[in-house]
Description:
8-stranded mixed sheet; binds coenzyme A; alpha+beta
Amino acid sequence: MSGYLIRPAVLDDALEIAEIHYLGWKSAYAGVVSDAQIAAKQPEKRLDYWKHKMQDGQNLVLVGQQEPDGPILGFIYGGPVLDHEITREIPGQPKLKDFDCEINIVHCRHAAQGKGLGRALMAEIAHHWQVGGKRAPMLWAFRDNDYRKLYDKLGGTVFAEGVDEGAPDVAYGWQDLDALIAACQPAQRG
Ligand SMILES: CC(C)(COP(=O)(O)OP(=O)(O)OC[C@H]1O[C@@H](n2cnc3c(N)ncnc32)[C@H](O)[C@@H]1OP(=O)(O)O)[C@@H](O)C(=O)NCCC(=O)NCCS
């Protein structure tokens, strides 16, 4: 048990989600992408984007809170595997076509990081997909972003390299959703 309340996002969550996303880009991706690319994520510019993602039926946006009336501390958004510019496939590893669901974005507020929310959000989206008949999840992460260590820790395998928004990125995949859910269980401490 993570102790977090994870639920599907509703339209009223759009501003908080957009804020967390923007703050995440500012703190995690400065130096990886340009200032203009970060500015493009300013919350007021992205409300329609997030409302659309919640409503289009193909995607899943989940938010994490500590209590029902509390602030949103983090979110995850995923859906079908999207086209992506691939620069190299890693020999002996699966191909993009071998995966059937993609985690597009996962961000937690700075003060909430390192306390298991990322794991809880990843586990919950994997569970939703499992119930919906999906099999193998993947995601792209900026190559030069320290936070991608999360996916190493959760047992993801790098199977391709690519480019997103002009910056190099890498694709992580999991053989099946069970493997991801098992890896997301809270680490034993002490
Ligand atoms: C990446 C992110 C979503 C992870 O969420 P989180 O709640 O901080 O992660 P958790 O507490 O669940 O940690 C899961 C594991 O990943 C590891 N991890 C997470 N971020 C890490 C980092 N920057 N460096 C090294 N390890 C990291 C943790 O060590 C942890 O393992 P542990 O529980 O055995 O210690 C969050 O830190 C975040 O929003 N980062 C900024 C935005 C971003 O870059 N998002 C996309 C990631 S490519």
